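Schema walk-through. Below, the input block comes first and the output block second. Nothing else is stored per chain. Lengths vary across the set, and this one has 203 residues.
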Amino acid sequence: MTKKITKPLLLSAAALAVSFATQANIVAPAPLVSIPTHDAFFDHLRAHCGKAYEGKVTVNNPPASGFEGRLVMHVRVCEDHQLQIPFHVGDNHSRTWILTKTGSGISLKHDHRLEDGSNDPMTMYGGHTVDAGFDRVQSFPVDQYSIEEFVKDGIPASNTNIWQMYIYPEQFTYRLIREGREFRVDFDLTKPVDLPPTPWGYQ
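--- output ---
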């Protein structure tokens, strides 16, 4: 004996099928995960968005040239997942630090450009956080891309680079350390300065 399916049941089944089909077509973006110390560090820097500050080299051991002239950092671009901070050295506007939330921490890249805006042969090297760090201090040990680039360019000593950034109410610090080398620039956050030119390649 065949059981008769009533019209209300058929309508209910059809509505359910439409509902499932509609849900299947909804694609929500995957969340960009992050941890509190990384978020706090990022936000402390982002609070200075649109401002520029003058700094000075406080450690350069052993002494190396290339940082003569007025040093200015500019927190120029601030997005939810990325900060772009040009680092101007005198009339050299080739350097931009790029901090990006990756879902596994924070990446630090050094975007280097030539004066015509094209990429410097050595660019986008940097590192990535490997631990929680602190609200105001993060370390970026060299990443694999950079290691391979340093080897190709004949500077394997840089394969142990660790970059560090400190962001306190009165001072921002950029620091590079490796065996036999330390370089540090401290910026005075209490005295904003006039904005520098647009960095090369970003016009």
